Amino acid sequence: MKILLFYINLNQGGVQRMMVNVANFFDHKGDEVTFFLARDQGQYRENLNPGVKILSAETDNRFKLLFKLRTLLRKHEFDTMFTAVPHFNIIALLAKAFANANCKLILSERSNTLEEFKESPWGMYKLSFFLIPILYRFANGIVAVSHGVADDLAKVALISKKNISVIYNPAFNRQMHLNRHLEVAFPWPKDEETKFLIGVGRLTPQKDFGTLIQALNYIPNPKVKLIIVGEGDELEKLTAYSEALGLTDRVFFAGFQLNPIAWIAKCDVFVLSSLWEGFGNIVVEALAAGVTIVSTDCKSGPSEIIEQGKYGYLTPVGNPEEMAKTIQRALESPMDMAAQISRAEMFDVDIILKNYEVLFKN
């Protein structure tokens, strides 16, 4: 089977990580896998199997990208094309039509469609949402990464939820059992009284790390500290905010880390402070680390991953006082490590991607 994966780049991000997992899975199966990227760049590029071919348009212009994809589809015969997020889904639909290509096109929604539309600025990305109810019905298959995403997408796309396949992200792999024991360059204190919280993700408004920093401020114990792993446009703003609250000795910014599970495993509580998600790969990674989880009860995936509080504590979105109280409960009553790891294994790459294999072939 000849498979084409189409996306923007391989930078830090849950979508990129998922696409790499898909590429490696089918490459391992002996299929011919090609990545077509807007830009050939990103930290996850080194995680790709050597057998995966990379082609790049080297443009950020969506119209140029559309016509380069059309040319590629005319030149090569692919069996299946797989893409993600609204504007790339739309480009793929149009390119396939313009090229009169016979390949199956599988779209995927990785985030909450309604929240993404409401929160995104005006531009090509937001405009693409208006084409969802017109064009998505022409896809051969549509994947949503959680039931919450599927519910909202069905409303936006004006299609039946029965036409959407809910496939959770392949967010766990056996290598995580080894990676959680890796050493990290951080001056960990030797006393048992110091407790570490950790948040991981792109430093963007969606992740709402400001609320997490504010929640730390509501925890009076100076021995409770916070590590934030990730990079993004809000670094300067978040650094200034922690300084304004007098938390410079309690908040640490660790930048992007290729194996965040090694950091998570050395902390006491993982906190997801997001305003919304589609799934939440990093929540699965925190489960795999065996740590206790606090997550906002945001749309759409995290509450499904931790089964409405069975494998973690849920807290209201954007409420630092309640988040602080929930974190303190988590510190006082940690979850069972073996149960956390067992739950993570339910999202194993080999288990989840068999669903994609069926979808791609049928």
Automatic annotation (TrEMBL):
<feature type="domain" description="Glycosyltransferase subfamily 4-like N-terminal">
    <location>
        <begin position="13"/>
        <end position="170"/>
    </location>
</feature>
<keyword id="KW-0328">Glycosyltransferase</keyword>
<keyword id="KW-0808">Transferase</keyword>
<dbReference type="GO" id="GO:0016757">
    <property type="term" value="F:glycosyltransferase activity"/>
</dbReference>
<protein>
    <submittedName>
        <fullName>Glycosyltransferase</fullName>
        <ecNumber>2.4.-.-</ecNumber>
    </submittedName>
</protein>
<feature type="domain" description="Glycosyl transferase family 1">
    <location>
        <begin position="186"/>
        <end position="343"/>
    </location>
</feature>
<dbReference type="InterPro" id="IPR001296">
    <property type="entry name" value="Glyco_trans_1"/>
</dbReference>
<dbReference type="Pfam" id="PF00534">
    <property type="entry name" value="Glycos_transf_1"/>
</dbReference>
<dbReference type="Pfam" id="PF13439">
    <property type="entry name" value="Glyco_transf_4"/>
</dbReference>
<dbReference type="InterPro" id="IPR028098">
    <property type="entry name" value="Glyco_trans_4-like_N"/>
</dbReference>
